[in-house]
Structures are given as C-alpha cells and as structure tokens.
Amino acid sequence: xxxxxxxxxxxxxxxxxxxxxxxxxxxxxxxxxxxxxxxxxxxxxxxxxxxxxxxxxxxxxxxxxxxxxxxxxxxxxxxxxxxxxxxxxxxxxxxxxxxxxxxxxxxxxxxxxxxxxxxxxxxxxxxxxxxxxxxxxxxxxxxxxxxxxxxxxxxxxxxxxxxxxxxxxxxxxxxxxxxxxxxxxxxxxxxxxxxxxxxxxxxxxxxxxxxxxxxxxxxxxxxxxxxxxxxxxxxxxxxxxxxxxxxxxxxxxxxxxxxxxxxxxxxxxxxxxxxxxxxxxxxxxxxxxxxxxxxxxxxxxxxxxxxxxxxxxxxxxxxxxxxxxxxxxxxxxxxxxxxx
Amino acid sequence: xxxxxxxxxxxxxxxxxxxxxxxxxxxxxxxxxxxxxxxxxxxxxxxxxxxxxxxxxxxxxxxxxxxxxxxxxxxxxxxxxxxxxxxxxxxxxxxxxxxxxxxxxxxxxxxxxxxxxxxxxxxxxxxxxxxxxxxxxxxxxxxxxxxxxxxxxxxxxxxxxxxxxxxxxxxxxxxxxxxxxxxxxxxxxxxxxxxxxxxxxxxxxxxxxxxxxxxxxxxxxxxxxxxxxxxxxxxxxxxxxxxxxxxxxxxxxxxxxxxxxxxxxxxxxxxxxxxxxxxxxxxxxxxxxxxxxxxxxxxxxxxxxxxxxxxxxxxxxxxxxxxxxxxxxxxxxxxxxxxxxxxxxxxxxxx
Lengths: 340, 351
Fold this sequence. Notes:
With 340 residues, chain A is mainly α. In chain A, 78% of the residues lie in helices and 0% in strands. Chain A is built from 16 helices and no strands. In chain A, helix 8 runs antiparallel to helix 10. In chain A, 55% of the residues are buried. Chain B is mostly beta strands and 351 residues long. Chain B has two helices and 28 strands. In chain B, 57% of the residues are buried.
C-alpha cells in the first residue's frame, strides 16, 4: 500500500476518533472491558436456548433436519463457554462435553430427543455457573440481552430467517423471549418510567412475533419487524444501564480490542490451553464477521481478504499452528490502516 | 388521536404564544403545498394539504405487506414525487423493486422506473433529469434518467445502502451504507465513485446544505450527525445528539440556518444551528412515537414528522418549536416530503 493510500485512509478515519470523543455519554463499556466473558455468558445462554428450542420442536413433531438447525451451533457455544466453565466447575465441564456428544452421536430422532432432554438440565447448570455471576451486573445483563436480541443468532434474526422459511432459528427466538424477560428483571430496577415503558412495549411487540415454537403463517410478514423492535430495546437498555451495548459503537476500539483477543487466543493455543484459545478465537471470529469485515474491506482490502479466509465459519476449523502467524499479521496490517 | 382540528390548534397556539390568532392561518393560506407521507406497511401515500387536512390516500398496491413505499423525493419544481418501492426481502431483486413517479396535481402515477435491487431511498438531481437511488439488496447506488427510466449507471457504495442525496450544485451524489458505516462520494458529472468516507455508526440519511458546501449524515446507532465538507469530502464536524437519539431523517429550514433531525429513539426532533452546530432545542412534548423522517414547509413555518410507531404526522410550529397537532396517516409512516401545487390547481377529484 502506498503512502498516499495510507494518508487517505487515515484522513478518512479521522472522524472516527472525533466521534469516539464526542459521544461518550455512557461510561460503562462491557464489550471493551470483558468481551470474552460476555461471549462465554452468551454461549451458555445460547446453549440453553438451542436445547429448549430443540426439545419444543421434537414435541411438535417437526422434521429432524429442521431441528438440526437449532442444534448445530452447540459446538460453537461450547467453544464460547468451555474455558470459563473449566474454571468454575471442571466436573460440570466434563458432564457437558458428554451430554453434547450424546446429542451429536444419536442416530435416531427418538434417541436425539432423549439426549436433548438429558442435556437441558446440564445446560441450565452451565448457565448458572458461567452466565449468572456475570449477568447479576445490570450492564452485563444488558450486554448479553443485546446479543440475544440483535446478534446473528438472536431473536431478531430468528424472525428474519423464519420469514425465509427456517424453523430452527425461529424456535431459538421463541425460547429467547422468556429469557429476555428474566434478564430484564435485573436491569429494570435502575430504569426510569419511560425506559420501562419503551422496553416493555417493544419486548411485548417481539413476544407477539414468537407465540409458539414453530413459526406462524409468514405470508406478507416483514423480515425486519423483529430487528426494529430489538434495536429499540437494546438502545433503551443502554440508556437504562449507562453502558455501550452495541459492540461496534467505536469501530477502531473494537478492532484494537479484537486484535488483542486474537493475540491472547494464539498465546493460549501456544501454551496448549485449547479451551482458552477457543474462547478467545470464537469472539475474534464473531467480532470480525459481524462488525468489522465490511468496513475493513473498504479501507484495507488485502488484510481483510486474508482475515476472511482465516476466520470463515466460526473458528471451528481454525488451525492454530498454521494460522496464528498470518492471523496476527493480517490484524496488524488492518490495524495500522486504522491508525492503531 | 386528533383531539382538535389543525386550524383550531393553530389558533390556540397563537393565542397562547401571544401572537395574533390569524398569523398561523395566514401563513397556511399563503402557501399552497401538499405533504406526502409514505406508509411502509399500509402500502400507500397519505396526502395532506397545507391546512393539514388529509385530502387523499394514494394506493401503491392493493397488497399491503407485499410491497412497501419508503424513501421519497420531489422534483425541483415540486410537481412530481418520486417514491422508492420494494418488497420486504432486502436481499432479493424482484420486479417489485421500482421507483414510482406521482403527479402532485392529479395524484396519478406517471411512470414506474425499474430500479432493481430493493430501492430504499431516492433523490432527484437539481435539474430534475436524473433520479438517484440506494439499492439495498445489491449494495449499490443507481442513477436513472427521470423521463425515460433508463438506468445510466450503478455504483458499489458499501453494504446496505440507505440514504442518498444529490448536491444542489449538481456536482455530487452521496450515498450512505449502514453496515460499513460509510458514505460514498459520487461525481455526478462523470458518474464515478470518488471515495468512501467513514462516518458515524449506522449512517442513515444524507442531506446537502442549500449552497452545497457541506452535507449532513445522520448515524442512527452513533447518535450523531457528521458534517462533511464537500470540497475535501472529509468529516469536519460531528454533532452529538446523544446515544439514545437514533437520528434518521433530516431537513433544512428554507434559509438553511436550522437542521431539523428526527430522533426515532427518543421520539423527539432535534433542532441544530447550522452555524454553530449546537443543538439549540429538542422538541418532545406531544410528539408521535418513533419519528423517522422530517420535512419543512416551503415557507419554513412548519416541520412535519413521519412517526413510524404511532402511524401519524406531528406538526411542529417552527416559531414556538412546539407540536401543534398530530394527524393520523397510514400504517408504518416512513418518510415525508413536501410537493408544491401549481397555481389554480384543484384537489384531486373526489376529495
């Protein structure tokens, strides 16, 4: 990249630093302070939702292929919370591994349904061990709620995919609604009257979209209807908690932070701590794919292409031995284009 | 809800403000214009006259929920309204993706421009010859001959294009992209992309100053307005409205001294001084819920917001900066623009 290009990019990014300084009305930044902790809590929450969704779909007699859509992310959720669970309860970690493996290995639908039902109480224990301590803090409850609402596996996306004919993501959204209400109870005491009204009004609007585990007739449905309400709730949660609950509010900071987490992932892999490596890497993959790749691709196309190749899927196929060095180099190159 | 007629409210507001009661009505009578509100879920355009009465509802299709009218713009003489029409599947290109052209005098549909790519917002060039569109489905902007509908060019502008405006001097078109947090600068003379500018988080609407010296870009999640110098195409100021504001639509006063910003998050309209870039007022009382767009009457006397959650238009007296009325429109009010009625024109038949 020529020096003129770098100057142009830096000039383009100048407003970002101005932006960062100008809008800091909320002081708490959970996604900057503990992204991997939030990711672990989110993974524990999502594991429960996936199992609740699958159990409900089995009960409804839905085709196994469609139930698989709900279950196929369990491996990634395990990557998210494995390291935290190892610290909190090593025995539970092993039981979780076994419970998830039983689902994976079940060949008949009946066996898989039974394995799901057996795994669910284990997942509740995981959630209690990994997520509950974190979401006791309203700002972190808000952060997890934000991910449950607007992430690529969240409630809003569940509605959008249901409009496109997908059943599994919708069922996860359905399961997610009751958990959102539970988490909201942690935040509610510090919300003012208007915030309570707005959040509960829009949670209710979302709830109306998710009456049952299986989608209603979607003819004429607006795929973005869930997103509108979900973003509104997340925005008012920010207001109530005084915390930044959209991870990409400050894009340069997110890139810098993601680069740091990538370094920690590679260090963990190097010392043989696969669980910690996975937990860090899965956040890196999520942050990059969800928030960074589009913008980086416009201003630093070459390292972004490299990162896209290394971080495809959700980090499940990442080979630390071969990929860590180019990963960190690509992040470094992308970061320097962003003035980091 | 509409407890009082707009005339009565205007009179009462004038009395409360100690103004001559006839002043507000006098302004209404002096300006003959129409207010067009696109109803995203109702698949219609609600038309109000300058006394704030609903005089017509233009059906875009008989299939609400299948197609949605969203962003609009007006021809330079105010006689035509251009409306972006799309289906509910932003990721698909379908025959439902077009720009419809409505005659302000008759409310007849004059033309349908095949836009492709799920057009979300449109902008008419200052000479009226070209129509620009953000094409959400394909990450592109498009420009079309306003008479023939011929597609003149398409541009890569970032992911999820949203806001679009053409500079009054005819030099530039800016198109925002929500997911990449960028604004594309397009040379409107040779139809090439000059550069991409990073702006606030989730940029939505872009509006050029009347003298084309700057452009304003609202950032919904950022809660900011980026001010872009159109000589250097760099952000020179960032106006903070608060992280809860969720600004989307914007409109300038006729003299350009005020920028009105619709804050969907706070159900408020922010008034920005364009000299100092200070927020001078925030209008909240009696506002409808989730205002997504705002337009200003030709005389600058009123501002109108399209309120997405309350399916209404809030009418703001720009002298007192208070809401003087709320008028029900169709489902999912998305955008609002002002059309000018040629002298001697009657309302459409049947009204």
